[in-house]
Amino acid sequence: MLFRLKNLYGVFYVMSEGVEKESSGRWNFVGAYVLLYVDAGQVVRVISSTFYGWSPATSTLLQKVDIVWVVNAVLGMIVPRPVFFILAVITVVIALLDTVYVIKLFSAGSVQKLFPVKLLNFMVGTLVTIGFSTVIKWVFIPFECLISNNRSISYYLNYGADDSCTPFAYPEVLISAPTILVAVLYMSFALLSSVLTFALNPLSRKPRAQCTGRVEFLYLSYKISLSLLVYFTVYLTPIVTNVFMLILLIVVLYNHLCIMPFHHHAINVLRGGIYLTFIWMEGASVVFTAVQRSQGVNSVDIQANSLPQLLQWLTVVGMPIAFALGGYLAHRNRDRIHQTLDRLYGECEAKKLTLTMGGASTTTTIRRQRVRDVASVMPTPSSVTITRRSNFDKFFDTSWNGKRAFPTSVSASTTARALLYRRNEHDLLFLNYIIMRGLEEHPYSDGLVMLHIKFLRFVFRDATEAAEQEKMFNLSSKRLAVDDGYVLYALKRKAQQDSKTSSIGQDGMRAIDLMEFDNGMEKARKYHLACITSMKGFWRLLSRTTLKQTAVEDMMTKLDEYDHALKGAHKEYSWMLEKYNTSAALLHSYATFCDSVLNDELLCMKKRVQAQAMESGNEDVMDDDKSAAGGYAQSAG
């Protein structure tokens, strides 16, 4: 099956692997802040539309906050609206087809070209984060006439003779029906990308972590609802839609404050301010629509000096205050987590001191027992075990809730991540204690187990114990969440990748580089075999006692095939020996090529000696071919 979950995991793993490559510089953070502003500006524009109770004067003012809308308005003076529709549909279709193509390549087990993967990475960055609200608006241009005075598709199809708004009549339905399908696929693609696009390594300095996807999924669901509910205002009153979106935004902000999803505290603060600003606007929208309904007026009929307009100007003035308050809430939440960490650290130190100083006996047995007790307070990372309390223990332990440090597993995970982001190497044992305490209090939490596994592999650097935990977790019969399943797949893939890169002799290679290496080796061996086959065919024809009339032509064909295969083998071996000159398998393969095709015994022996030196770890035996003029390309002919 083409769309198996493992194939999707593989696509997002390779596409997001560049996130693990740190590129230092402040421009990364500046770019993230710009994206936050662009995204927030689009949402502000949609919230403040007249369909949700805002007056034309206020809506016109807040539209200018959206940079994408400003560019769109300038281009709209010279470009017809159907052009934006065609551009949006083509862009979305290219992204979807590129996704299908890359999935097909992964299901086949090789990627011959890197461009499709890079294009998909670019499409996710632009269509999902930067321009989602604008692109989805352009995709729904055929239906705009249902809720606005914009010209319908019929007007353009009939060259201005008919301007009736009938998007579901023939022939307009031939455009409307595929448009709905494209929009559904686009929204599904965006939701999946928001969950699976993150940095796997907890030590990454990039903004997005695994838990980021769960909040981003809710936020993207809100943006989708905000864009779609406009078309249902005929059936639903603005009060109902505004109340629904207000509740959804409160859920988003609550999860944001509980999880603190981004690696960087500054982005968490900014997102907290942005979410509370949206809540302020949505709450004001509920009040606007209620006041307008009580006065019997529509949003488009609001007068300049009326009470509804005055309320809207006050709301606009209060938006910076709401933003500052939201940022303060996020910052205050981080301080509260740090206070919890300080309290737990004090408890650990007090318990260690009590166990160390308690009692006056100095016998060897008691001293050994004290050492074990002290070590049990902050055990080594590999000593963490998951102990599940039975129903009997839960029933009779009436003081358990009072002894718990973390009310939820999310709180334990957030606390552990906050401690990690202090970036103090001396806190690693205490970090392990936090994970142990969280697993003891919430042993059935998949999120904590996955965090523990990632910490073992990347933070505590205990790959063996991490592999054991992954194996145990894989054997469980649970249905994992999509992002947890992706993490298990990515960790397994990364372990295999590390093992293979060590055999090649180059550490830190990406999956796409390994695919490039495998593809190059496959091509080189294919040309190598073609050379041998062509020469065998040539000598077989020459050895015949009776020759046909076409024998000379057949022999020349075999020589042409040999020449073509030889050039192809030279080309593949040349660039591979330049880029992967520490691969023993490649050197062995090239040595065989020199022996069986080039008939160069001296070069063959030299390459085999180099390959054996690589396998034994003695790199001093390597000669200077790769640094001489022409390098390996020259030795390859």
What is the structural class?
mainly alpha
Helix-strand pattern: HHHHHHHHHHHHHHHHHHHHHHHHHH
- Can you tell me the residue ranges where pLDDT is under 50 for at least 5 consecutive residues? 19-24, 364-373, 623-637
Fraction of helical residues: over 70%
Task: Walk me through what this model shows.
The chain is mostly helical. 71% of the residues lie in helices and 0% in strands. It contains 26 helices and no strands. The longest helix is centred in the middle third of the chain and has 51 residues, at 307-357. The chain starts with a helix and ends with a helix.
Fold blueprint:
Blueprint (H helix, E strand, L loop, with lengths): L4 H12 L10 H21 L8 H8 L3 H10 L4 H28 L6 H16 L1 H8 L13 H5 L15 H24 L15 H17 L9 H22 L5 H31 L11 H51 L6 H14 L13 H6 L3 H4 L5 H12 L7 H14 L4 H14 L3 H13 L6 H23 L6 H32 L8 H29 L4 H15 L2 H16 L14 H5 L2
Helix pairs in contact: 1-5, 1-6, 2-12, 5-6, 5-7, 5-9, 6-9, 9-10, 10-11, 11-12, 12-13, 13-14, 13-17, 17-18, 18-19, 19-20, 19-21, 20-21, 22-23, 22-24, 23-24, 24-25
Task: Write a short abstract of this structure.
Keywords: Membrane, Transmembrane, Transmembrane helix. This protein has helices at residues 5-16, 27-47, 56-63, 67-76, 81-108, 115-130, 132-139, 153-157, 173-196, 212-228, 238-259, 265-295, 307-357, 364-377, 391-396, 400-403, 409-420, 428-441, 446-459, 463-475, 482-504, 511-542, 551-579, 584-598, 601-616, 631-635.
What characteristics describe this protein?
about 625 residues; mainly alpha; about 70% helix; disordered C terminus; Tiny_macrocysts_regulators; transmembrane; transmembrane helix; membrane; TmcB/TmcC TPR repeats domain-containing protein
